[in-house]
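Hi support team,

I've been running sequence recovery on a batch of backbones for a student project. Most finish fine, but this one hangs at about 90% for roughly twenty minutes before it completes. I'm not sure whether the input is malformed or the queue is just slow. I've pasted the structure tokens below so you can try to reproduce it. Let me know if you need the job ID as well.

Thanks,
M.K.
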């Protein structure tokens, strides 16, 4: 990876994009290890996590994660997701966080608070944001995957980034480890 240990950087995690990419690659993210991994790369000043939340549901499966993130080193940015019915009558949820990510990344780059922005998303809509931040003198790394089918990162975004980091290459550093049944100790004769 291309990190300078003295540079100040921030993580901008598009929660929906990271979830989709990790699922497609077949792993679960351990967010404690993710933060630890990036803290080792340089002077991490902020780790933002962005997620739209469906408020009409009495219980959201995302709630335990967002609560944990908010109390464990992440700056959590959420907004209500919009629900609608598509033309075929199916219930759909729209929860785009593009503007929130753009506003925070631009603010930190304009304030000269960071030297490096790390965007964890593959959405090519961010290409113009990356270009604008680069003009402010901030390097931008994009973390996503081209190993998925289809690729989770848009070509325009990958080409605009100063550095593209393949998610599959760094995932072993922060993959949630589950106990394998074969390695689990089982009592023998009640002992």
């Amino acid at each position: 990876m291309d990190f300078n240990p003295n540079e100040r950087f921030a993580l901008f995690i598009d929660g929906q994009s990271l979830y989709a990419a990790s699922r497609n690659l077949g792993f679960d993210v351990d967010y404690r290890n993710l933060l630890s991994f990036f803290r080792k790369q340089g002077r991490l000043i902020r780790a933002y996590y962005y997620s739209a939340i469906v408020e009409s549901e009495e219980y959201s499966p995302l709630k335990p994660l967002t609560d944990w993130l908010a109390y464990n080193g992440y700056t959590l940015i959420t907004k209500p997701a919009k629900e609608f019915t598509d033309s075929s009558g199916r219930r759909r949820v729209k929860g785009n966080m593009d503007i929130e990510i753009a506003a925070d990344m631009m603010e930190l780059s304009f304030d000269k608070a960071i030297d490096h922005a790390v965007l964890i998303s593959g959405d090519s809509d961010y290409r113009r944001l990356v270009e604008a931040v680069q003009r402010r003198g901030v390097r931008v790394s994009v973390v996503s995957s081209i190993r998925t089918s289809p690729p989770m990162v848009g070509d325009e975004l990958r080409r605009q980034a100063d550095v593209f980091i393949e998610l599959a290459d760094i995932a072993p550093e922060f993959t949630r480890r589950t106990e394998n049944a074969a390695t689990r100790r089982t009592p023998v004769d009640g002992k």
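--
Follow-up from support: It reproduced on our side and the slowdown came from queue contention, not your input. The chain has one domain: 8-82+94-173. No action needed from you.
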